[in-house]
Amino acid sequence: MPDMDDSGPSSTYYRKLHNHQPADERDRWRRALYFSTAVGIRCLDLLSDYMRYCLRPNRMGETPSYPINEESAELHHQAVKELLGLSIWLTMVDQLDGDVPPWLREFFIDCWAAADRLYPAPSSQEIMSTYEDDLGVGSVCEAVSTRLCYKLELEDTKGDACIKLGEMLRDNGQARADLLFYALSAPHDALDRSIEQLKNY
Q1: Global pTM?
Q2: How many structural domains are present in the chain?
């Protein structure tokens, strides 16, 4: 294992990650596939929670109408992929200070590739290009929240519908960090069992 670069991140979290660098490309890919799968499941849960929040009855007991059809299902699928692509990026920037070391950058590149295999459209490159002008975690969370709110036609359901998803995504940072550490540190058989548990959650 290479020595730590003094110019890289020095946070306690990074030091924990550094001790669990993938052994080789095959190991890195398997761990990246786990991470993207697990985060994708979390993003599905996150979006479902957001939609339940938007579509719950108001104070008058009225439930907002929302179309359930093939088109809305496809939009929902694309929204999950968008959250997944951005969650990978958020994991990379919201827990680490300074430049991301090469070994970890390669891991995240594999995570985006795995995400594209799990959810082909839109591509991770398309997702990141959409938000390339938004700087910082807060701005990106606000931008995706507004974008997906209108894309899913939920803007009229609740007064805070356009910002709620961004708040939920931002508040999920510790869960992302925990998943990253587990993805890099757990034995392969434990990762496999974890995926099965997440699928049945």
Answers
A1: 0.89
A2: 1
